[in-house]
Task: inverse folding
């Protein structure tokens, strides 16, 4: 359960380059990614050509505010000391971190620290 909560805070990178089709007509170093577009119940597939290094991720997925909120609340109850590195980035006063997430992250760390002290 906790690894899934940690993923909810960290986000992830998609590095599966099998989504790319080789032999592009635009020369070496280009790739075609098919992006599904949902139209009603039908799906259209469009091709997009661009250059992409196999060293780079295909996509990066960042967690949404509600997802982070719920993960922090759950970790408040069951989090452990090794979860703190995933929680701490949300404690900073940054424009992209809403105040309610910042406060929840602070309270979550406090609860984890108190639980750890109580078990010693």
Result:
């Amino acid at each position: 359960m906790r690894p899934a909560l940690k993923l909810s805070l960290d986000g992830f990178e998609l590095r599966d380059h099998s989504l790319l089709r080789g032999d592009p007509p635009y020369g070496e170093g280009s790739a075609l990614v098919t992006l599904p577009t949902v139209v009603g119940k039908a799906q259209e597939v469009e091709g997009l050509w661009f250059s992409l290094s196999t060293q780079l991720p295909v996509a990066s997925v960042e967690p949404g505010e509600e997802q982070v909120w719920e993960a922090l609340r759950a970790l408040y109850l069951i989090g452990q000391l090794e979860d703190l590195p995933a929680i701490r980035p949300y404690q900073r006063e940054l424009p992209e971190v809403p105040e309610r997430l910042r406060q929840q992250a602070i309270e979550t760390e406090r609860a984890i620290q108190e639980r750890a002290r109580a078990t010693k």
Notes: Strands lie at 12-14, 20-21, 30-39, 42-51, 59-61. Helices lie at 2-10, 65-78, 84-87, 99-118.
